Amino acid sequence: MNLAMTAETDWRKLHGSAFDGKRAIVTGGAGFIGSHLVHALLELGATPIVIDDLSAGHADNVPSNVEFLRASVTSPEIAAAFENVDYVFHEAAMASVPLSVEKPREFFDVNVSGTLNVLHAATKAKVHRVMFAASSSAYGDSEALPKIETMPAMPMSPYAASKVAGESLLRAWANCYGIDTVSLRYFNIFGPRQSADSAYAAVIAAFAKAMLAGKKPVIFGDGEQSRDFTFVDNAVHANLLAARCERPLNGDVFNVACGKRVSLNELARVMRIALNRADLAPTYQPARAGDVRHSLADLSHTKKTLGYEPMCDFETGLKATLAWYASTMMDGKPRP
User: Fold this and answer.
1) R_g (Cα) of the chain, nearest Å
2) Engineered SS bond to 91: which of 9, 28, 51, 127, CB 3.0-4.6 Å?
């Protein structure tokens, strides 16, 4: 795998002038997915406004020409930023399954009360539509594959439960308050700027940090668990498609993924080859509470309603991601 290869996305080619002159709030806009949304919106001629308390994001991720309100989504002070805004992309959240098991109250404060606060501000300001970063963890550990949006929610962790609660709030607000909303269930999003500097880092980030530091990656469980790994530009694309959808979405739920499964053992193998570290075979530890066994998305509903097609496959996205980690790793620690 040539790490010089990158995944360059031409947002203008995909979305034309649909966002010219539009104003958009991006909560969590200094974070991983949010910052990618901000950059895409700028390229598309929109005016993004970032709300982020920097508990997980980095100020360096926010372009200097973007308005930045440093505040938690739970704070009443954010309401003023919503005036004259067309769209809200609500990406801010606490986002770790194992950490949510340790700190369930904190997760509900941010992920549920924070979402309620965002919806209240958006409704008061008469925002056109709110896009919510939902999660495939809503499906729980059902053995049925692929996961279809009509399956019952079966959250297995406080994180998953908080995201399901957020979906319910968005559907209720669309029904009661005259604001259009949509929930996008992300499946294992990865890419540049995803933090690896945490005991709870997502698996690709954690593997990259270990291998680039010459350490063996750790797999929790037997490694045969599988994920529908989805490059971050696919998530950005889905958000933009949802925002510009001409029909009301009424709090509907959509899967955002690539529709392909990769086991953690296979992921470790591919990354060892890409980084030329065949010596770094993974070590194994007991499975963690709340983790699901397999994850794979059915994309029929998202394709039919939003016109979504994955525009960057797993292999191409992984090349770009590993190139970014390799270029930013300093003394075993990634820079934002």
Assistant:
1) 19
2) 28
